[in-house]
């Protein structure tokens, strides 16, 4: 391979290639293999990569990255709920050990085959084939979140997933994907905490409705902050109140989820704009999560 004459410009990456084309940004000589189309002329690979890094991602009004498809996260949440529901139905429904492990309940459950009943671990261990499943009071704090993914009846999961699909993409569009997921989980935990304090000590609470009420609270707070017309939620609010007072429905979970979602949205919406906005939001949401855990611990100590 011949070497270009002295004084002839050569590609900065391939010194054996003569070229008279220069990068439009850094003006270094570039050969055809190193040329990258630009809005004007050509750029070198390094300048193209640097330009991509410097392009700022579009943000929501509250600092989150705008989702290319705001429905994707809700579809993932729906898929998780459906998978858990299928597993529960296939393993015994309301008598499934999965229900006892994942649902929100205060006291430990002794699972003997397909039958579960409240009992202390000592009593349960006396049974030959029995296994003991702890409740919140015994430290099963994962139930603060997992309870919102548990459904037994087809109509229950159907109604909740329809509501999630109605509200979820809206909230993700307002907040961004990561903030939406964090808010959903915090609302789930706040819902379980409310049940822990206000519900019956011998109830088992399941369902995503607490988290969905959190999405409703978040949508109202974000809409109010942006000056949107909240009258569009009037029918939704009326239906939510009616559903909450139906016997057998956990109004405690709905209330806790709504408050948790509204508080999380307020932290995101009212964080001061500026360089440290994301840090302030993260600190606020972390503090809210810590309050939920502290409330759980306090309730445990009072039982």
What descriptors fit this protein?
7 strands; mainly alpha; 54% helix; 7% strand; 11 helices; 303 residues; two-stranded antiparallel sheet
Would you kindly provide a brief summary of this structure?
This protein has about 300 residues and is mainly alpha-helical. Helix content is about 55%, strand content about 5%.
Provide structural commentary.
- This protein has 303 residues and is mostly helical.
- It folds into 2 domains: 1-55, no CATH class; 72-302, Rhomboid-like (Rhomboid-like fold, Up-down Bundle).
- The chain is 54% helix and 7% strand.
- It contains 11 helices and 7 strands.
- The termini are far apart.
- The model has no long low-confidence stretch (mean pLDDT 89).
- It is found in: Membrane.
- It comes from Nocardioides simplex (Arthrobacter simplex).
CATH fold call of the largest domain? Rhomboid-like fold
Residue-averaged pLDDT, rounded?
A: 89
What is the general shape? elongated
CATH architecture of the largest domain: Up-down Bundle
Q: How many distinct helices? A: 11
Rg? 27 Å
Q: How would you name the CATH homologous superfamily of the largest domain?
A: Rhomboid-like
**Order of strands in the sheet with most strands:** 5-4-6
Percent helix range: 40-55%
The overall number of domains is 2
What is the H-and-E element order?
EEHHHEEEHEHHHEHHHH
Give the number of DSSP strands: 7
Please write the CATH class name of the largest domain: Mainly Alpha
Low-confidence stretches: none
Q: How many strands, what sense, and barrel or not for the largest sheet?
A: 3 strands, antiparallel
Q: In percent, how much strand structure appears in the residues?
A: 5-15%
Specify the structural class.
Answer: mainly alpha
Q: State the end-to-end distance.
A: 85 Å
